[in-house]
Amino acid sequence: MIKKLMIISIAFFCAFGYSQNTQNAKYVFLFIGDGMGANQVYATEMYLNAKPNEIKVDKLLMNSFPVNSNMTNYSASSYVTTSCAAATAMSTGFKTNNGIIGKSPDKKIAYENISQKAKKAGFKVGILSSVMIDHATPASFYAHQNSRNMYYEISMELPNYNIDYFGGGGFHHPKGKKGDQPDSFENAIKKGYTIADSHKEFNKLKNGDEKIIAINPEMYPSGEFYWAIDKKEGALSLADFTKKGIEVIDNDKGFFMMVEGGKIDWACHGNDGVSMVHEVLAFNDAIKEAYEFYKERPDETLIIVTADHETGALSTGINYATHPELLKYQIISVQEFKRKMTELKNSNPEVSFNTILDLVQADFGLGNSDVVLSLDDKELALLKSAYNKQFKGDKKVNADADYLTKTKVKSIGETAAYILNKKAGISWGSGDHSGTPIPVRVIGKGQEEFSEYFDNTDLPKKIEKLMGI
User: Fold this and answer.
1) Which long-range contacts (CB under 8 A, 24 or more apart) does 373-380 make?
2) CB count, 10 Å around CB of 329?
3) Using CA atoms, how far apart are residues 187 and 207, in angstroms rounded to an integer?
4) What's the CA gap between 12 and 9, in Å, rounded?
5) What is the pLDDT of residue 310?
6) Strands 194-196, 212-215: pairing kind
7) I need a surface site. Which of 6, 148, 264, 344 has the fewest CB within 10 A?
8) Cβ–Cβ < 8 Å for 43, 268
9) Under 8 Å between Cβ of 303 and 445
10) Which SS3 state, helix, strand or coil, does residue 414 take?
11) At residue 174, does pLDDT exceed 90?
């Protein structure tokens, strides 16, 4: 009799207890900080805690998550990946060459991605970014193109998979590079999408709305968010789009949501350390929205925070010294300072170098001896050289140039950021990607799957396993 009871008990445990333990993750958030290596996160924590003569580092929310591991990210063609190759691996489980979106290295096979699989399984899907939604990382979660630069083709492909919610930036070339092709937005509308590109339309979005493309009404002409440091009045944040996305696609079956902090990468390409910090903080605010959702459904929700690659070969500390408190004196992005200089040159081309130094001190703190930001002769010479090139030479500084554009003219703003970063103990090895493994921070249902060092091709496989798709 006892033996029979034991057998029944074991059978009951296997039938009931096991199924309870292997219940699928219903709600999955994948946060990708584009260009965000471990040092980008650590520098942000240093900035938050920075006080003279005090060493203290409180964690960002992502670093408080119980699983803390790392992920390799090389592409099929290089140990140093591009965003599209990394995001393709993270969305499909397959490596591809740098430059390709969602296809095999020979460009002959279009890989099925996790968004397509989730939709087939009945989940809702959201794809969000603080840059254009036809940019490399978000595009890799829905598109299949031979080149990441085929922005128009990517935007035309966007509505083909019935993804429930796109949120963030706009399209690069909605009518093609020459402006003479069918409109990408009209194509999406014909396929059942609603475009919400005003505050009123954004605020009206509600649970159950289908096939939404929500675009920030306050952004740069090329389609990306304004810099978080510049705090443009009325501009929606990545956290706003995340909160709204959760509201729109929340349902009993579940959802998959990818959220990209795209301008972390852009700041690192420009070696603008303080703007980078503010982008990481904006990204962290978006994670907080998912975490609030998680707290209500901890047994059903999974939050993964990672990156596609590191940008800039950032390091913290020069000759054992760091002074992150000095970074707080920069109150403007390099891009907006470039705009300020362009406007000044147009209105007053004969402006003096001393006037420029006053503006540099106001926006970067440089020259203020009261806060240990005096400028030595070498630093003054660097700023004078940038001033001469920008105001006295025939070279133009385009504040809105593509973030990957390489120019021979180092602007006053870029020079000021370089000097301030160096004084604060922040140094950059390059203006491009590095090949370092990137951080993975996880909390929620199935978090143990991510506890060991793994490759980015394993990421979607782990998520699909936990979602049961």
Assistant:
1) 373/326, 373/329, 373/420, 373/423, 375/419, 379/419
2) 19
3) 24
4) 5
5) 98
6) parallel
7) 6
8) no
9) no
10) helix
11) yes
- What integer pLDDT is reported at residue 17 of this predicted model? 41
pLDDT in tens, 71-124: 999 999 999 999 999 999 999 999 999 999 999 999 999 999 999 999 999 999
Q: Are 318 and 41 in contact (CB under 8 A)?
A: no
CA nearest to 64, candidates 92, 45, 79: 45
User: pLDDT digit string (tens) for 288-314?
Assistant: 999 999 999 999 999 999 999 999 999
Nearest to 267 by CA among 26, 11, 27, 36: 36
Which two structure tokens, joined as six digits, stand for 34? 């584009």
pLDDT at 392 over 90: no
Contact criterion met (CB below 8 Å) for 236 and 128: no
Identify the band that residue 321 occupies on the pLDDT scale cut at 50, 70 and 90.
confident
Sheet of strand 165-168, all strands in order from the earlier edge strand to the far edge:
194-196, 212-215, 165-168, 124-129, 255-261, 27-33, 301-306, 438-444, 67-72, 454-455
**Residue 178 identity (one-letter amino acid):** K
Backbone Cα Rg of the chain: 24
pTM over 0.90: yes
Number of H helices and E strands in the chain, helices first, is 17, 14
d(CA 137, CA 169): 13
Spatial separation of the C-alpha atoms in residues 87 and 136, rounded to whole Å: 8
Strand runs (DSSP E) across 23-155, as ranges?
27-33, 67-72, 124-129
Condensed to tens digits (0 to 9), the pLDDT of residues 197-220 reads 999 999 999 999 999 999 999 999
Q: What are phi and psi of 335, to 5 degrees?
A: -60, -45
In total, the chain counts a number of residues equal to: 469
